[in-house]
TrEMBL record:
PROSITE patterns the record matches: SIGMA54_INTERACT_1, SIGMA54_INTERACT_2, SIGMA54_INTERACT_4
Superkingdom of the source species: Bacteria
Record flagged with keyword Transcription regulation: yes
UniProt keywords, alphabetically: ATP-binding, DNA-binding, Nucleotide-binding, Transcription, Transcription regulation
SMART domains tied to this protein: AAA, GAF
Annotated ranges, domain Sigma-54 factor interaction: 165-394
Pfam families linked to this entry: AAA_lid_14, GAF_2, HTH_8, Sigma54_activat
Record flagged with keyword Transferase: no
Name of the protein in its database record: GAF domain-containing protein
Example GO biological process: regulation of DNA-templated transcription
Gene Ontology MF annotations: ATP binding; sequence-specific DNA binding
Length: 475
């Protein structure tokens, strides 16, 4: 309740729970100084509460004096209310309570982030209250709600989890549905998405939800080694086929036979190897380096890339026939910035994961920090969000709360407009924008200058010159 009072900038707040007859009873009453209210101050607008309960929808009222529906209500007039928030606590389609705050001051319009965070708190409260009621241990105090917070986070995360993948957005639910449909079959899958979106997690979910789950899932990064070594790793070699080939060696396709091979960064595979991979997909057989004997393999192929392969086909960088063979079932993972509704469940999941690992189970994140995390663009996607949570937990010390300052290195304030405003000439303003674009490209590429240069359409040397000019740290 204290956190919500602070979040929506109210004077006081209440937690009210429905008794067996359905009437709302006061359980927690606090003011903005985090003090308990005396019973004589337990006066609220039941008109607002009843409306929210009947609708089963939250009410965010910024100026009650001008609100057509509530400005003349006796309770609003008697209490001289200017703003109010009332959020129903719903469990199994039934309203079991409300969180109510009000103020005598006018507030600016509530932002979508305010509404989202308050809704998340209400969801957690619903789980906590229902669990406590089931066990007959409903101790209605702020301290008890905080002790229950870890189990609440776990239950909230599990509601949005599929084989270790967290997400409740429509795009992720659609992906879960696709995985369920294709997992039982040996169909080839192409997963496309930006770096850090979780492409390998999708591949693992497909493998471990299908009939091949008891056999090997073999993973290789096609962009991490030179062509000759990659060919040997994929298809194997025979003794004497090249310098250093002192014995016969199985390739990963043979190792994965009966199971699945995950070809990450398939867009980086050299064109000559693309021909050999096409033969595997068409014929179901491989030839080791230095050997003319074909060998049968039974492998499900799942490939992934952060490149636009359709565009690479047009430029001749990627073979069209291989693209069609791989793209039987395409799965496109949207960047995290396009599915903001997944951020809260991910925050809860990663906080539980790393707080548990570091023996800090009572750690929580304050609403202001959650708002900052929701507002961030997360150009590094889920991986960057996970890193930010892990770092914040590790550096939290003896604190029991994570504040906005714990995420300062990851949450980039919207400062570019301020920076532009401080520059006088067009050239100075352009340099500000150029530095930001280069910084973001380096962040997205994990500090890899060549990859960032490709994304920006400039040469590696040109980008190096710009990095030195702007004194950008990228390692």
């Amino acid at each position: 309740v204290d956190s919500i009072i602070k979040l929506v900038d109210s004077d006081r707040g209440f937690l009210m729970l429905a008794d067996r007859g359905g009437d709302m009873r006061f359980r927690i009453a606090r003011d903005r100084e985090e003090h308990r209210l005396e019973e004589k101050d337990f006066e609220v607008s039941y008109s607002i509460i009843n409306d929210a309960v009947n609708r089963k929808e939250p009410l965010f009222l910024s100026d009650l004096h001008t609100h057509d529906e509530f400005k003349d209500k006796k309770s609003v007039v008697a209490l001289d209310l200017r703003t109010a928030v009332c959020v129903p606590i719903v469990r199994d389609e039934k309203v079991i309570g409300v969180i109510y705050t009000d103020s005598h001051r006018i507030k600016n319009e509530f932002s979508p982030d305010d509404i989202s965070v308050v809704g998340a708190f209400a969801s957690q409260a619903a789980i906590a209250i229902e669990n406590a009621r089931l066990h007959g241990e409903l101790i209605l105090s702020r301290e008890n709600l905080e002790r229950e917070n870890l189990s609440l986070r776990q239950e909230l995360s599990e509601r949005y989890e599929f084989s270790g993948i967290i997400g409740k957005s429509k795009s992720m639910i659609d992906i879960f549905d696709t995985i369920t449909k294709i997992a039982p079959h040996p169909t080839t899958v192409l997963i496309q998405g930006e770096t850090g979106t979780g492409k390998e997690l999708i591949a693992r979910a497909i493998h471990f939800n299908g009939p091949r789950k008891t056999r090997q899932l073999v993973t290789i990064n096609c962009g991490a080694m030179p062509e000759q070594l990659l060919e040997s790793e994929l298809f194997g070699h025979v003794k004497g086929s090249f310098t250093g080939a002192v014995s016969d060696k199985k390739g990963l396709f043979e190792t994965a036979s009966g199971g699945t091979i995950f070809l990450d960064e398939i867009g980086e595979m050299p064109v000559q190897l693309q021909v050999k991979l096409l033969r595997v997909l068409q014929e179901g057989e491989i030839r080791r380096v230095g050997d003319n004997t074909p060998r049968r393999v039974d492998v499900r192929v799942i490939a992934a890339t952060n490149r636009d392969l359709a565009e690479d086909v047009k430029t001749g960088r990627f073979r069209q026939d291989l693209f069609y063979r791989l793209n039987v079932v395409p799965i496109s993972i949207p960047p995290l910035r396009d599915r903001v509704e997944d951020i809260l469940p991910l925050i809860e999941h990663f906080l539980r994961k790393y707080a548990g690992k570091m023996d800090k189970d009572d750690l929580r994140i304050v609403p202001e920090a959650i708002k900052a995390l929701l507002a961030n663009r997360w150009t590094g996607n889920v991986r960057e969000l996970e890193n930010s949570i892990e770092r914040a937990v590790a550096l939290s010390g003896e604190s029991h709360v994570l504040t906005r300052e714990h995420f300062a290195d990851f949450v980039r304030h919207n400062d570019i407009v301020d920076q532009l405003g401080r520059q006088e000439t067009l050239k100075q303003k352009m340099l500000v924008v150029e530095k930001r674009i280069i910084t973001e490209a380096l962040r997205e590429s994990g500090g890899k200058v060549t990859q960032a240069a490709g994304a920006l359409g400039v040469t590696r040397q040109h980008l190096h010159n710009k990095i030195r000019q702007h004194e950008i740290r990228h390692h």
